């Protein structure tokens, strides 16, 4: 990606909090979301040495923008982090891909010459602001014309995951094997210190709280289906009811922040870029099978980049549910051995608005640790959408 006067967009810093359990009693439940985001911003400034006064904008993802996450949390967090009041901030919602979209917007702004220095990130405290909090009793966020178009009605994400498992012929054992491996990889990465450079401990939490090192297929097999519903069972007789809490991403709290600039500005500041944002895209997909957008998003971003699957050294595919990644691998032909190599959201957690930046932070570090060149990140999003981003590690 090169734009105004040949400018590119590079990542010069990336940091995230450990991910906490997204329920009362979780390690980060006592931290207000604005403070959670402010922590990542402060750590990013400390680690890169960037002067906050030079930051042109802060773009943060947050999905449930209500209650403790209302009133433009990006602006509130940056002021809480001590940035000058001259620094603006804005909050975006592209559902689970909100902070990946924030990274895309930031990169596009740098390439266009609208920004020199911009921070993209995200936050979600699911323990303090539960999913669905933004839909008020009696409200209708879809409208009558939407209802007329989808007269049979759409379904919750858990039912979409069940439909995907059925359509792609994925067995409960396959889902649980994938999920157990996610925990094992994340536990090993934690033990080996592979997350150390990206983590910014907070509230006494040093490492990701949700990872269960002892997870096995046998323990997951004992869990009951999480989304069984008689009405949906009658409507979709093909569903085998295989989605459980063990092969789904857990409710989570966390934040992450990424500093993006151009190669030219990075040189002036003496920063060594971690990676170049090579290509970005976003797609819409069937809102009934709303989690399958990662398949066309991967195909589209590769075509735009002029690359093939064989060129990609590491993949990060958000593990909203196990069938999302497994159906993606089946359709694209991508190598699961190169996918989520340090574990994914099933083990680490999925703090909605923060996940895109969290995954990018992990991907940048993993690519450097393995001396790879290209990394591809993609994630499904509520309503039937998906972002995809290719980054290139710079030697």
From TrEMBL:
Molecular function, one GO term: acetyl-CoA C-acyltransferase activity
Catalytic class of the enzyme: transferase
Start and end residues of each Thiolase C-terminal domain: 272-393
The entry's keywords: Acyltransferase, Transferase
Keyword tRNA processing included in the entry's annotation: no
Enzyme Commission number(s): 2.3.1.16
Pfam families, per the entry: Thiolase_C, Thiolase_N
InterPro entries named in the record: Thiolase, Thiolase-like, Thiolase_C, Thiolase_CS, Thiolase_N
Domain Thiolase N-terminal: 10-263
Similarity comment text for this entry: Belongs to the thiolase-like superfamily. Thiolase family.
Protein name: Acetyl-CoA C-acyltransferase
Phylogenetic classification of the source organism: Bacteria, Bacillati, Actinomycetota, Actinomycetes, Mycobacteriales
């Amino acid at each position: 990606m090169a734009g105004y006067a040949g400018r590119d967009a590079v990542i010069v810093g990336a940091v995230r909090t450990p991910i906490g359990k997204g329920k009362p009693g979780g390690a980060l439940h006592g931290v207000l979301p604005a403070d959670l985001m402010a922590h990542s911003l402060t750590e990013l400034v400390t680690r890169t040495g960037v002067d906050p006064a030079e930051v042109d904008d802060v773009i943060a993802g947050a999905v449930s923008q209500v209650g403790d996450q209302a009133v433009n949390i990006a602006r509130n967090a940056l002021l809480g982090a001590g940035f000058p009041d001259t620094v603006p901030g804005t909050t975006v919602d592209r559902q689970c891909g909100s902070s990946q979209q924030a990274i895309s917007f930031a990169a596009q702004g740098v390439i266009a010459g609208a920004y020199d220095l911009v921070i993209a990130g995200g936050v979600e405290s699911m323990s303090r602001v539960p999913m669905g909090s933004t839909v008020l009793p009696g409200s209708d966020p879809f409208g009558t014309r939407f209802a007329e178009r989808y007269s049979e009605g759409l379904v919750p994400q858990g039912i979409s995951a069940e439909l995907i498992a059925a359509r792609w012929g994925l067995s409960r054992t396959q889902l649980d094997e994938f999920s157990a491996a996610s925990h094992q990889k994340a536990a090993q990465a934690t033990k080996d210190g592979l997350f150390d450079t990206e983590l910014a401990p907070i509230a006494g939490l040093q490492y990701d709280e949700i990872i269960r090192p002892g997870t096995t297929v046998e323990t997951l097999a004992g869990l009951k289906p999480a989304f069984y519903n008689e009405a949906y069972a009658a409507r979709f007789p093909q569903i085998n009811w295989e989605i459980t809490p063990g092969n789904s991403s857990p409710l989570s709290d966390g934040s992450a922040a990424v500093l993006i600039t151009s190669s030219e500005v990075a040189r002036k500041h003496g920063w060594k870029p971690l990676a170049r944002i090579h290509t970005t895209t976003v797609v819409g997909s069937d809102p009934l099978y709303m989690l399958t957008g990662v398949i066309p998003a991967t195909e589209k971003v590769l075509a735009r980049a002029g690359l093939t699957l064989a060129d990609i050294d590491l993949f990060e595919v958000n593990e909203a549910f196990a069938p999302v990644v497994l159906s993606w691998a089946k359709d694209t032909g991508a190598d699961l051995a190169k996918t989520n190599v340090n574990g994914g959201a099933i083990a680490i957690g999925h703090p909605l608005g923060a996940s895109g930046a969290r995954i990018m932070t992990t991907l940048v570090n993993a690519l450097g640790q393995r001396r790879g060149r290209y990394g591809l990140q993609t994630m499904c999003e509520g309503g039937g959408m998906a972002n995809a981003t290719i980054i290139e590690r710079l030697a």
